[in-house]
Every structure is written in structure tokens, then in C-alpha cells.
Amino acid sequence: MKKAFAIYISCFFAMFTFAQSKDSLTFYKKFHDVPVKYKLEHFDLKGNVKSFYESSTLNNDHDLKVIYEFDTNGNLIQVVNSYGIVSKKFNYNSEGKLISFTTNSKIKRDIEVGLDDNGNIVKLIINNEERGISTLLNEYNKKGVWTKQIHKEENSILQENVYENDIKLIKVLIYKNNEVSETTNFSYEFFSNYVKIKQVSNFKESGYTAITCIYVDYNGTFIYGDLYEGDYLTSEQVDEIVSNFQLDHNENWIKNQQQIRVITYY
Prior knowledge:
Elements: E1 3-4, H1 24-30, E2 49-56, E3 66-70, E4 76-81, E5 86-92, E6 98-104, E7 108-115, E8 121-128, E9 132-140, E10 146-151, E11 156-164, E12 168-176, E13 179-190, E14 195-203, E15 209-216, E16 222-227, H2 235-243, E17 246-247, E18 253-255, E19 259-265
Antiparallel strand pairs: 1-16, 2-3, 2-19, 3-4, 4-5, 5-6, 6-7, 7-8, 8-9, 9-10, 10-11, 11-12, 12-13, 13-14, 14-15, 15-16, 17-18
């Protein structure tokens, strides 16, 4: 039996052939993962967005809403829930560059941000109330794509993102104690009106394998996600999913088969 769940695709993107896309580089960059999401583009948003939140189409009235609020420059200011509790707060300098942010989940963490000349986050200095200070270093390839994260004090790799031709994501490796603990491989299949991206994750400790497929349109916008248990969507089901997909006047998605997204603008 199919079990659906809402997923985000910050680290997923589709591989177009030259004939299928005249602007493939822009498409690829749209879904590259980043160490910290704080710009409109990191959330697949366009226009003068003031805030947004997402809710399930199944039980919308009972969802605890997580609201993302932006300034007029398109920078994320804070993340707050429907009870007014702030979980993240971001700080910028006079030039609008991210300099630090604070998280307030179970443990408060103050995080100082270091940027390179291209605006990539190359350093995160984390001041944890319980564990003290730790430093995360990020590496990028020649096209400015995030490829690796290292824990400086422990001299250990935390994550590696592997790309084909420096642009097409094919594998993500998660490390524990400098050994690979989780491997995720990506494959891409093109249809007439959508792209299916298959993600196969293998967890070393448990031996468990999870297979996830997501569907995006030819602009790379998330349409639907499914966790499969041996079966796949039929073409008729996919056509129904695509027909339920909606964009607003700024071409931001506001409804898919599983979620609605409420966006306010300046």
C-alpha cells in the first residue's frame, strides 16, 4: 500500500538534456542544497514575499503552522509558529549579508556565519549552551555548489554531496565518526509533463533501505512526493496529481496533491 508524505526537495534537481531545457544551469542551481536556508530562492520563491507557511491538504485546520518571515530584500528574518514562538532568528549587516542566526529548539544555539567573496557560507561557528563552541567548514566546487561539510575540532567529515559534471546531484553521503553511515543515490526519469526523481537511501547501522520518489514540473517546482512500498503511481494517477497543481501570479506554487502554501506579499 502506498504511503504518502510531504517532503521538501532542497537537495533534489532534475537532469535535462539540451533539447529539453535551454536554461538548464539555472534549473540545476534552483535545487542545490545549501548549509543554511535564508534566501527566497532557497525556498523556491519569487517576488516580494513577506511570509509563507505550508499545511497538509488532509488536516489543514489542525496543523501547527511554521511561518517564515522575510524582509524587503528577500532575506529570512525569523521562523515562528502559530503560537508566536520563534525558533530561528537571523541577523544581517548593513549590506544585507548574513552574519549570524540563533536557533531556539530544545537547546539554544548562537551561530556566527562566515561568507566567501561569492556569498557562499564557508564557516559556521556554533555556540551551544551545553556543548560549547564547534566550527563547521563548508567546501564548494568550481561552480559554487556545496560539496562537503567538515567538523573542524573533530577533524571529521559530516556530509559529502557528489555531482556529475559539477552540477547534477547523484549521491549524498552522511558520515558518523568519519565513516559513512548513510548513502543516498539519485536517478532521474523524464516524461512529457513532469520529471520523476528517485531517491534510494541505505542506512548502514539498521540495514534499512528507503525508496522515495518526487515529481517536479519542467520548471523544477515540487508537485508530489511518495514513499513507495513496492508499487508505483500509474500514469493516470500522475496526470491527476499534475492537474491539481496550482501556481499564483508570481509562479510560486500554492497547492499540490499533499500541501497548500499560503504566501503573503509586500
